[in-house]
Amino acid sequence: xxxxxxxxxxxxxxxxxxxxxxxxxxxxxxxxxxxxxxxxxxxxxxxxxxxxxxxxxxxxxxxxxxxxxxxxxxxxxxxxxxxxxxxxxxxxxxxxxxxxxxxxxxxxxxxxxxxxxxxxxxxxxxxxxxxxxxxxxxxxxxxxxxxxxxxxxxxxxxxxxxxxxxxxxxxxxxxxxxxxxxxxxxxxxxxxxxxxxxxxxxxxxxxxxxxxxxxxxxxxxxxxx
Length: 225
Prior knowledge:
Number of helices: 10
Low-confidence stretches: 29-33, 51-55
Largest sheet: 2 strands, antiparallel
Strand order of the largest sheet: 1-2
Shape: elongated
Distance between the termini: 59 Å
Helix content: 40-55%
Mean pLDDT: 80
């Protein structure tokens, strides 16, 4: 309640009635409950973000991570969002072809053996550690590589720097290098390397792309439960 009659005095009274060292009303922080996404409430056609006529090609939808965790995003879309910032023409062309193949035959893992070994490998480890999960996904895709790497599993991760490969195949070495790149930031493979169909086989390319998606969005990228 204000008692002054003129505007100047009213402003002074208003100032004196405020709590010291606190900002006036209207400057607080709003906390919203995180939305849980499901098949019933996740409709892209109703999303104001996707209704924009001109979408920034290097910006992912703000809800993408929640939708992926809910299992409501197909692998093709996950891969598109993961690689948004990559402009290499040959890589984009190869990725487009791989995404088309996933629509025909969805590939979570290289094969059933890969899935079984990976499932066993992540037991007791922090599945929210995206770097670790992406590395394990790659290391378990090759039997000989995993037979060497599994000895370096630690309670909180895997010591990639201590792994030494001897007499390994090109595929094993490529997977190992990619695991190090994604997990600890080394730079063994380039986008040009991934674009080379003679250097990276189609199956290997798919596994690496999936691992990149896991590194970006976690295990929900391949709908691993």
